[in-house]
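[Meeting: bench + compute handoff]

Bench side (C.D.) handed over the final construct sequence. Compute side (W.E.) agreed to return the predicted structure before the next meeting so the bench team could plan truncations. Sequence as handed over:
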Amino acid sequence: MIKLILSFLLMLCVQVSTASAYNRYELSELRNSYLAASKSEEAADLFYDKMEKYEGKEPVVLGYKAASEAVMAKYAWNPYTKIRHLKKAAAIFEEAVALDKQNPEIRFLRFIVEGHIPDYLDMSPNLVEDKAIVINSLAKHPRSGINPALAETMRDYMLRKDRCNEAEKQLLESINF
């Protein structure tokens, strides 16, 4: 009987610790942290420190872990360090995409990162594919399941950057939230 009770308590502790570990990685918080990290080196350091500790396999959280690596490249002064962060980001993005190939949030994060890498580095092989998934998902909104605030942010970003042709821009402009 005691073994049964101890087993139950152990199982309960594992579930609670797993739930609390996941709660530390709320998507709304990660979105805000990534935005702050893109604007401030101090925020980038905090975001990176938090995401570096993540060892789970939740695809979107892995996308933000990859983004935290990429944002550190922005603030690194040493070219070797920049490239190292970008390569690590690319590997984590590949893992996240492999776990959820059609997830528009992961694809959007990778699109942002690859869109900021200079062309001469030849480290942006997924721009066309990621853009197509993001635009197709936005066109299906709200059936796509994208959070409305995130969908609006995604659309606005795609419209501001020079990555869309006129037909894509017209489609994005026709989406109402």
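W.E. noted at the follow-up: The chain has a mean pLDDT of 88. C.D. will use this when planning the next construct.
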